Write the structure tokens for this entry.
Amino acid sequence: MKPVTALIHHGYQAPDGFVSPQTAVHKASTVIFPDVQSLRERTWLDKSGYTYGLHGTPTTFTLEERIAYLEGAQYAVLLPSGLAAIAQVNMALLRQGDEVLLPDNAYGPHKVFAQSELKRWGISHQLYDPMDLADLASRITPKTRLVWLEAAGSITLEFPDLLSMVRLAKDKGVFTALDNTWGAGLAFKPFDLEPLGAAPWGVDVSVHALTKYPSGGGDVLMGSVTTCDEGLAQQIKLSHMRLGFGVGGNDAELVLRSLSSMDMRYRHQDATARALATWCLQQSAFAQVLHPAVVDSPGHANWRRLCAGDKPAVGAVHTEGLAAGMLSLRFDPVFSPEQIDTFCNALKLFKLGFSWGGPMSLVVPYDLRSIRSMAGPQMLQGGFVRLSVGLEAAEDLMADMSQALTQAGI
Ligand SMILES: *Cc1c(COP(=O)(O)O)cnc(C)c1O
């Protein structure tokens, strides 16, 4: 045997007696079968074995199980990004002639996906006002097959009445899918929305951008789709395999490694975001501080019921429950758009960039007028920025905001 052949065929087996709590990183496109009969008999749908890297390795199967556990689900599939997970649900559940409903504050690229790809495939969509149950009810027709939910909503962080919306959709026989990136499986359980109720009930499907909290490092893109329903799981898994949406072992390992610190990171960023929210409420610069735990923030009572045991708040910012580490600020309309830009440019610790849930604080200015059609007129007045809080010390972040406000003449 020539070295080139010997090096390829050199045997390898995980060492016997090597017991470590850390998951091994298995990387594969090819999975070797011992004989023709085993190759013919293996089916990619059977997860008790392996067929091809795209359909899973011990590493990706472990991550699927942990994400299912985190979400309180039975089944999970992994995808190359959160946006791919959103697309996956739409592609598995919808067909030509169907209509899908999206909240007006849905994740922006999801709206673009509906306006372009879904439209080309003969699937229509409508936006609904996430803070108006009657508006959602009025838009559900016999064509409606799926209602998307987001709690809290993207950018403006309004917290909808998730329980009533899911109940309404269930009554009308319409599927519900939640973009659960904000709650991350920690702030509330999407498949058990009424923990004191007789039997668990909740959304049909949950999507999670693992890019955010589960990754936590700002260095990996991944998404998941989870469900408790066996039929839906099968439908999603088949579509997932046919589309070829697998993830690599190295990326799965990064998420597995970060999952163990996720609860701690979520709580830390939550506490810092609430400290910043409290500080911002004392500054005259801001007309509105948006964060579900802020008592005056839209949908605060809905958040309190679902995420804080309905305990009453003592001050302007509720201290119970859990919330993601993001807050949005609407500036007093007396300040010019140039001043808001100067404020963003002057920030040193908050970097300009998308995403959240990583170690570094981020800021993005938004023009709500161009992305929202149903926000109240008040929400559209004045400059608007979203802050995503990292793992820095709260007092350093406040000092940074303070100096940036001064530089902008605010
Ligand atoms: C980031 C994000 C996504 C998309 O995740 P990617 O992995 O960046 O594609 C989807 N939904 C929400 C709410 C997000 O914040």
